[in-house]
């Protein structure tokens, strides 16, 4: 990518105005993003992202610069320009690179850049046909395909010099169903930190049919009633609820400045005893995993909440300084255009003891959320919201009928205490997370769980 | 290697590969961002980049590719990717690259309105804002974000037919977010402004908006679930309309994903509703004289007096309808092929003040903040259900703050259900799209609370 002596020169230039730490992040990312509608290419293309991000600290002050002109002259020039925001005497820091080779635990076999576009389109076509032939009311199938071969190099003035190769692929299948002037959609999005061999490990047609099934179910569903009720969230990407409800509030980004509802609560009981929350960026070949994070630290399994007790935060280098705590392998960024900060990787509620059947049978009346669409949170208040893509009413301990247009809202610290049943069927789904350091790939998961009471937003007066 | 040299080499290699017409789209972007925290410069960043997107006709099909690696060694790869795209492109429609044309003669060069302030002045401006935010009330415990974002984007298009166009736009954004605490009660307030020149009056405007929202929300509680008469305050209306703006895009309509389909000339909204798309808005987020296909842009009504006037089109979607492009053929970024995108959109203001609007309501709600727009709206069906904050209105007066509620309804119905439009225009938070709106009053929406 860049040779060691140029990197060293950049780092010394970065420290020239008095900074106490500097870091270089180099990215070379070959990527293909293609959308097909009804099997035909609609948009997208292949290309290469390429650039360098330079970060300088002086105490808690952080400076960032990026460019895609990797000539030495330009790199030194932009580094010096950025460093001028610090106006102190140089601290005479000596850099000794200690090249660490971290074995890549996330192997890939079929590198996306070596596979012809026509083969990727074939996979998309298989998903399209399966969805299309599910039912006559399927009016449109849109497939968004993504793959990446992201090579990064992180070097800093503390001697870190590591590389990581992240090979990923994902397919988002969106299906629209139309009847009697009404339209509804369903989608699924399997993905992994793997090469194209990923598609040999799954049944892509089955995913296509699943998206079609959701669209059809929602098309004939009634509107969801509004009001308060118990909510059962199914296993898998439903874990996004905890990503929003408490994950973001456990990121150092909001904890360090004392903004988070969970700041200064380490060791306290913040959740019901059945809740254990983990964030693990080292899970083999998982969509939200990395070998090393974007600050050059090895990813690891972080226990955030254990049986209801707050055990840890997700910490990046800068906020670690503010909190006087060690980084947790959670420094992430969308690309070299972003300064990294603490973010989630694969976040999940650990298995409990109930079965899914038991949980539903024990619910007199409530909502069953089979698939979650997406959500967001205000980390300061803990107020979160998310919308459901497939939901049902539960009546007398049984799934009663599908309902559409449902939104769930709540407050993170309250909902953690209101989880009263946790299943034993942990599953992790794939998604994106948008926050200060850009859009990143995340896993979110859980077993089937129940929340005693939540506010359900819908269009029908209850 | 210089820009011109790189392009000439690319055109030469393109000919060798039998690419018939080739067009480069280049962006030169530079930015300055910083954040003030407790009186100090907290985060500071600068950037500069030049990136390339390519389209060209190979064996009668359009191909696309991009690269951020602007060196001679990457030209082979970028052309290879273009050819591979074209070979797999099944589209019957053949895009035609624009040729030089008289219309381009009148293009004016734009000035950067933010160049006249030094970096120190900009930093001072933000420090003043943070200080003022803290000074207004002791219950303001944290200024979560006091952020300045300035970016200059220069678009350069050149093709083998001799077309050469350049356009540049600089825009600034200040985002202020505060936290108010009273005992265990925590509330937040957020304000932002998009601008092309800095004006002193922005300081108190931003501070007042975010601080009063945070303070006024203290003590908020939920409310009984039912239908209410609702005012969507300007910022909320702007963000909601922004989220639904895809329903006016020609490609979305043609793909059957908008219920506006086949409604041109029909009444789709209240008589008082006028929606405009304006690419030349001087304080807009986008300001472009030509689109990415080289079509000259212009301002137009999408909805006029409640009647649907036009959709937005690029060359391809216009041709399908036997129309001319409306100058909305844009790439979402250098990594995207040419689609249909809006520039700046707005609802024309009416003549009622927000206070007057509140006074007309016997029992209702004013929504001052909505969340979850990326998930809780379905542009296809028009359904939305969004987590919200606001205030209860009783007998024409604001009576108490409300949180932990959702508002739900259908956007297509809402357009017809607008009973009043205010005179208080505010912008949506600028992402890809950009929408300005005054406060609007809706006859009925479903509120879920207790």
From TrEMBL, chain A:
Lineage from the top down?
Bacteria, Bacillati, Bacillota, Tissierellia, Tissierellales
Domain Metalloprotease TldD/E N-terminal residues, every copy: 22-85
The highest taxon in the source lineage is Bacteria
Q: Which residues form the Metalloprotease TldD/E central domain?
A: 112-219
Entry-linked PANTHER family = METALLOPROTEASE TLDD, UNCHARACTERIZED PROTEIN TLDD AND PMBA
Question: Which named protein is this?
Answer: TldD/PmbA family protein
The chain positions of domain Metalloprotease TldD/E C-terminal read 227-458
Point out the coiled-coil segments of this chain: none
Q: Which organism is it from?
A: Tissierella simiarum
TrEMBL record, chain B:
- The Metalloprotease TldD/E C-terminal domain extends over 226-449
Tell me where in this chain the Metalloprotease TldD/E N-terminal domain is found.
23-84
What is this protein identified as? TldD/PmbA family protein
Taxonomic lineage of this organism?
A: Bacteria, Bacillati, Bacillota, Tissierellia, Tissierellales
The record's Pfam families line, in alphabetical order, gives:
PmbA_TldD_1st, PmbA_TldD_2nd, PmbA_TldD_3rd
Species annotation: Tissierella simiarum
| Start and end residues of each Metalloprotease TldD/E central domain | 114-218
Q: Which domain of life is it from?
A: Bacteria
């Amino acid at each position: 990518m860049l040779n060691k002596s140029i990197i060293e020169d950049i780092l010394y230039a970065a420290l020239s105005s008095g900074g106490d730490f500097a870091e270089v992040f180099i990215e070379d990312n070959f990527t293909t993003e293609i959308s097909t509608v009804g099997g035909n290419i609609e948009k997208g293309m292949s290309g290469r992202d390429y650039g360098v991000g330079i970060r300088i600290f002086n105490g808690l002050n952080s400076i960032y610069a990026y460019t895609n002109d990797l000539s030495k002259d330009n790199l030194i020039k932009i580094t010096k320009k950025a460093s001028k925001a610090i106006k102190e005497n140089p601290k005479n820091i000596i850099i000794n690179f200690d090249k660490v080779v971290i074995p890549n635990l996330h192997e890939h076999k079929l590198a996306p850049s070596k596979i012809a576009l026509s083969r990727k389109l074939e996979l998309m076509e298989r998903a399209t046909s399966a969805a299309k032939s599910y039912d006559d009311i399927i009016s449109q199938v849109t497939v968004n395909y993504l793959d990446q071969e992201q090579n990064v190099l992180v070097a800093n003035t503390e001697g870190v010099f590591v590389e990581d190769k992240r090979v990923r692929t994902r397919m988002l299948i969106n299906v629209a169903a139309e009847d009697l002037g009404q339209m509804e959609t369903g989608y699924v999005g399997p993905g992994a930190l793997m090469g194209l061999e990923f598609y040999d490990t799954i049944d892509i047609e089955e995913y296509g049919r699943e998206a079609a099934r959701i669209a059809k179910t929602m098309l004939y569903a009634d509107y969801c009633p509004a009001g308060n009720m118990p909510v059962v969230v199914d296993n898998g990407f439903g874990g996004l609820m905890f990503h929003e409800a408490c994950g973001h509030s456990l990121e150092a980004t909001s904890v360090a400045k004392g903004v988070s509802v969970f700041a200064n609560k380490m060791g306290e009981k913040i959740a019901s005893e059945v809740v254990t929350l983990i964030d693990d960026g080292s899970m083999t070949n998982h969509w939200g995993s990395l070998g090393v994070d974007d600050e050059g630290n090895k990813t690891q399994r972080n226990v955030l909440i254990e049986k209801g007790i707050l055990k840890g935060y997700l910490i990046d280098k800068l906020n670690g300084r503010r909190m006087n705590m060690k980084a947790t392998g959670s420094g992430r960024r969308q690309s070299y255009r972003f300064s990294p900060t603490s973010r989630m990787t694969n976040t999940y509620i650990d298995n409990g003891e109930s079965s899914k059947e038991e949980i539903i049978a024990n619910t007199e009346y409530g909502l069953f959320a089979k698939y979650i669409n997406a959500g967001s949170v205000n980390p300061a208040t803990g107020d979160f919201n998310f919308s459901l893509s497939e939901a049902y009413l539960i009546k007398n301990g049984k799934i009663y009928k599908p309902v559409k247009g449902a939104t769930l809202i709540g407050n993170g610290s309250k909902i953690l205490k209101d989880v009263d049943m946790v299943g034993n069927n942990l599953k992790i789904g794939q998604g994106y997370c948008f926050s200060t350091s850009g859009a990143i790939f995340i896993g979110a998961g859980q077993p089937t769980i129940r929340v005693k009471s939540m506010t359900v937003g819908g269009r029908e007066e209850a | 290697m210089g820009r011109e040299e790189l392009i000439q080499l690319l055109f030469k290699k393109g000919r060798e590969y039998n690419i018939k017409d080739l067009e480069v789209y280049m962006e030169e972007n530079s930015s300055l961002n910083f954040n003030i925290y407790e009186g100090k410069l907290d985060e500071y960043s600068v950037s500069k980049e030049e990136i390339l997107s390519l389209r060209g006709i190979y064996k009668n099909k359009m191909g696309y590719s991009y690269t951020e690696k602007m060196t001679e060694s990457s030209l082979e790869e970028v052309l290879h990717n273009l050819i591979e795209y074209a070979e797999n492109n099944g589209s019957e429609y053949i895009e035609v690259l624009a040729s030089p044309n008289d219309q381009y003669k009148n293009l004016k060069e734009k000035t950067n309105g933010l160049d006249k302030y030094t970096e120190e002045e900009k930093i001072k401006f933000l420090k003043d804002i943070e200080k003022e935010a803290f000074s207004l009330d002791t219950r303001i415990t944290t200024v979560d974000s006091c952020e300045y974002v300035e970016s200059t984007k220069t678009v350069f298009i050149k093709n083998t037919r001799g077309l050469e166009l350049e356009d540049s736009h600089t825009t600034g954004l200040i985002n202020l977010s505060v936290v108010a605490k009273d005992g265990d009660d925590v509330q937040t307030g957020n304000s932002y402004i998009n601008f092309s020149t800095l004006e002193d009056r922005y300081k108190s405007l931003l501070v007042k908006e975010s601080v009063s929202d945070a303070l006024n929300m203290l003590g908020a509680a939920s409310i009984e679930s039912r239908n209410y008469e609702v005012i969507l305050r300007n910022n909320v209306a702007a963000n909601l309309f922004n989220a639904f703006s895809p329903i006016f895009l020609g490609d979305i309509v043609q793909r059957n994903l908008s219920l506006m389909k086949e409604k041109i000339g029909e009444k789709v909204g209240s008589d008082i509703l006028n929606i405009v798309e304006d690419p030349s808005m001087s304080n807009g987020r986008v300001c472009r004289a030509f689109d990415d296909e080289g079509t000259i842009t212009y301002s137009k009504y999408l909805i006029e007096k409640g009647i649907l006037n036009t959709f937005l089109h690029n060359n391809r979607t216009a041709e399908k309808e036997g129309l001319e492009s409306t100058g909305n053929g844009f790439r979402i970024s250098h990594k995207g092929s040419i689609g249909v995108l809006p520039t700046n959109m707005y609802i024309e203001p009416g003549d009622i003040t927000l206070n007057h609007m509140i006074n007309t309501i016997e029992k209702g709600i004013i929504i001052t903040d909505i969340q979850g727009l990326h998930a809780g709206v379905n542009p296809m069906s028009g359904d939305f259900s969004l987590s919200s904050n606001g205030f209860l209105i009783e007998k024409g007066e604001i009576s108490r703050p409300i949180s932990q509620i959702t508002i739900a309804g259908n956007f297509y119905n809402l357009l017809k259900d607008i009973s009043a439009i205010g005179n208080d225009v505010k912008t949506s938070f600028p992402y890809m799209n950009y929408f300005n709106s005054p406060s609007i009053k809706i006859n009925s929406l479903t509120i879920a609370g207790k």
